[in-house]
Amino acid sequence: MKEQNHIEAILNSLDGIKGAEARPFMYTRVRARLNEESNFWTRTSSIIAKPVVAICCLLSVVTVNVYLIIDANSKQKTETVFTAGTESDILQNENFILASNTSYDFNK
After folding, report:
1. Which pLDDT belongs to residue 92?
2. CA–CA separation, 20 vs 34, rounded Å?
């Protein structure tokens, strides 16, 4: 008996339910969206605007930048090792830089 009353109470709670109604102008908005022209740039911008694509592009740019920085540093270290063979080579290069004359020095 108690269960029957409980079931009846549940079924009676559904008596006042009405159908869902769409917002005003919803149909016109949907029709306008379906009739909207779709060209290359609108499709491209809709794809790029997705967060997954934007994050992937950002990560690829950061990865390429890190690779280029590391690669440049390793090339710079190897060039330094090749150019600085002995101590006398280093001293001669420094003296050449200090001994370079300009046209200003000759006009005095």
Report:
1. 57
2. 23
